[in-house]
Amino acid sequence: MLRIADTRTGRSVEIPSAHRHLLRICVHLPVIDTEIGAVHVRTPLVGDVLARTAELHGLESQTVLITPDLPDEQFQALDRAMSDLGIHPPATVGGHDLTETLCAAAEVHVLAHGTPGQDAAGAVWIDVGQVSPAPPDGGVPGRDHLLAPGLLNAFAPAGTDPLAVRLLLLGHAHSTPVTVTSAALDEARRTLGRWRQQVADWAQEPSRPIPADVLRQAHAALADDLGVPAVLGMLVGVATRADVPAGAKFETFAFLDRVLGLDLAREVGHQHQATP
């Protein structure tokens, strides 16, 4: 059973309700003025992590994405942005005028901070923290440096792996505001590259089961209000534990990547120089 902190009440609520095996999620996208930015993809990213966590716990999930009325160009840009960030496509996409119909039965509503939504009795509300660039002197790339045309403008320099942006955002509790700096992006890029290299190296060793304590702690962290930052911290520890065989490290990273969605096994099968 998953426990989510309801933004409206501050209480921890178990989801889905008793005797249900389908978790219905409604993600409400904020208004898009000009371009698709990190603030617009963080909300569906939280919905994606919730859905992945539910499935890891043996539940089925169904996500509905409620968007503002968008022209085709913006809608396509949003679709590309979510794809680049590894966000699974929602089951249904609809405009705000369809919220009442599409989300009437949802157990969880995920909203960007400040996004209005219609009340739903018995549903849990997750308020997703804002995303903003650093001040002009804070080391964030200028607006001429794009991850891709129209995608995450002003948040990442050209050539950045979009999943490094995902990792950066996952490193913060979903309700916490995030200020994106180039230093933070650089660290996320380095971490992602190092983990992929290590996973590829570990994959060459015999498989071993995930340590019971690691598995137990990971499940507990994810079940407690989507504690992804704690899971990321666990992976840092597992990577350096001398008592965990390489094959067990591989299985641990591969298993938890089902929630993280960082494509950590991307380099498996390629030739690499072994890392310590």
Structural features, described:
The chain is an alpha/beta fold and 276 residues long. Helices cover 38% and strands 16% of the residues. The chain has eight helices and nine strands. The chain has helices at 38-56, 72-84, 99-102, 162-170, 182-202, 212-223, 228-240, 246-260, and strands at residues 2-5, 12-15, 22-28, 60-67, 92-95, 108-112, 124-128, 131-133, 178-180. The protein has a five-stranded parallel β-sheet with strand order 5-4-3-6-7, covered by helices on one side. A two-stranded antiparallel sheet has the order 1-2. The chain has a two-stranded parallel sheet with strand order 8-9. α2 links the parallel β4 (60-67) and β5 (92-95). α7 packs antiparallel against α8. The chain is globular and about 50 Å long. It starts with a strand and ends in a 16-residue tail after the last helix. The model is unreliable at 137-151 (pLDDT under 50).
